Amino acid sequence: MRLFFLEMKRILSSRIAQVLMALALLCSLLLAWLPVTYCYSTFTNAQGQEVTLTGLESVAFEKNLQVAAAGEVTPEKVKAAVEHYQACLRSYGVTESYDLPPGVYEREIMPVSPLLHGVKEAFADPETGMAPSIMEIDPDRLDSWYEICEQRIASLMAMEQPGSQAAQKTAMDMYRSVPKPFQVWPGMNTASLDYQNMLGFLMLLFCVVLAAPSFAAGYQSGADDIFRSTRYGRKQLAIVRIGASMCLSSLWFLGCSVVYLVTANSLFGWECVQTSLQMMYSIVSLPGWSIGQLQVFFAGAATLSVLASVSLTMFVSTRCRSALSALAVSLLLCLLPTVAVMTMPGQLSTWLATLLPAGGTGIQASFLYAVTDFQFLTAGELAIWTPWAMLAAWVLEIPLFAWLAIRAYDRHQPG
To answer: Minimal CA–CA distance to 313: which of 400, 211, 234, 164?
Structure first.
């Protein structure tokens, strides 16, 4: 244990670690605040003047305006919202809400807009996926709102996974287990979760930058020759270095995640975390989680992704002769899932983004985006939802790459 704490002290006393930790804390606070700055609302006051609100004022205004819509999303509330929308547009002789006179949308439609989320999507054509306008929907059909949503997930999966009955059945079983009625608590938007993902990506890079020189720097400077001549200079030293890096990375990542979530949820309002995932993303999203649960699950999953990436980075460090080459290869591996999603076709990119350690917090490929998507890894009659496959891969990769790093360092021949 003494070696472990000495290694932790060595890492924490380095200038680069101190700078990155301060930068990570600053990013946690800044990224939690940025989604609030994008919020804006306009309304016409009693004097006929248009007033624009931004930031926290806008969040408070919309939450107050939509207070009647908050709570359970029952078929009766959805039907009443659609009827109100249709009656409002007919009274002004228009067919789309953007054709309404100034101030009408904010006064008439915005109070019920949370309940209209996903209505057009649920009634999309099962063959083409084209959604109708709300004016084309028969409100009486909304008496069977949740049955219509189940029909939609069936038609969507038939389009998304036409060659896999197993994936279609798994998706249907998952959606049937989603708690209903849904919950909606206005205030928060998807930008908050996107920025949590961005924080995860930055933290991934920071952790990799700290871990990359762990062994390669000793090779480069010659200090490793001295370490190897000591009592605990081979396998024991490798175990201590890997353990310290992974412990520090996990505590660092989780600490910044807590700072981010406390700040973001305090700004938007803690009641918003009760909102069902389906009321912020697709109405037929598969997991039965609230937004708060998604935030926590993502933080935990991203931690595993970072640990798997750090474990791989330590292995890379044992195989490189210089700190710079170890850092370059490690950063390339961090970017590889995003590159795969952007450049490779279909299932190949899905498999790579799922199995690569850095696939949990990428810009284009991440656990968050996998949860809100409908991708499955399929092999014959087997179909696995990609977020579950990601978690399984990272749990296996953490000890695998750590073992490979220990083995490689123990067998390393100086010179």
So the answer is: 211
Question: Is there a contact between 119 and 145 (Cβ–Cβ < 8 Å)?
Answer: no
**Token couple for 221:** 């400077």
DSSP labels for 100-128?
A: SPTTHIIIIIGGGHHHHTTHHHHT--TTT
DSSP secondary structure, 141-203, as one string:
GGGGHHHHHHHHHHHHHHHH-TT-HHHHHHHHHHHHTS-SSEEE-TT--HHHHHHHHHHHHHH
Whether pLDDT at 224 is above 80: no
Give residue 77's domain range.
40-184
Residue, of 286 and 379, whose pLDDT is higher: 286
pTM score of the predicted model:
0.92
CA distance 304 to 312: 12
Same domain, 277 and 154: no
Give the other-Cβ count within 10 Å of 125's Cβ: 10
The type of residue at 366 is S
Rounded to the nearest 10°, the torsion over CA 353, 355, 360, 365 is: 0
Tokens representing residue 110 in the block: 């915005």
Of 368, 375, 232, which Cα lies nearest the Cα of 300? Answer: 368
Cβ partners under 8 Å of residue 415, min gap 6: none
CA 55 to chain centroid, in Å, comes to 23
Distance CA 306, CA 310 (A): 6
Spatial CA neighbour of 59 closest among 35, 78, 31, 77: 35
- Could you identify the residue written with the tokens 């499955």? 376
Is residue 394 scored above 80 in pLDDT?
Answer: yes
> CA angle, corner 32, sides to 199 and 371, nearest 5?
55
Domain end point (choices 123, 150, 184):
184
Same domain, 243 and 384: yes
**In terms of domains, do 345 and 317 share one?**
yes
Residue at which a domain ends, from 166, 184, 202: 184
Q: Would strands 40-44 and 71-73 be described as parallel, antiparallel, or unpaired?
A: unpaired
pLDDT (tens digit per residue) in 354-364: 999 999 998 88
The per-residue DSSP string of 345-400 comes to -HHHHHHHHHHSGGGGB-SSSBHHHHHTS--EEEETTEEEEHHHHHHHHHHHHHHH
User: For residue 284, what are the CA distances in angstroms to 124, 151, 172, 214, 303?
Assistant: 12, 10, 10, 46, 27
- Per DSSP bridges, beta strands 376-379 and 382-385 are antiparallel
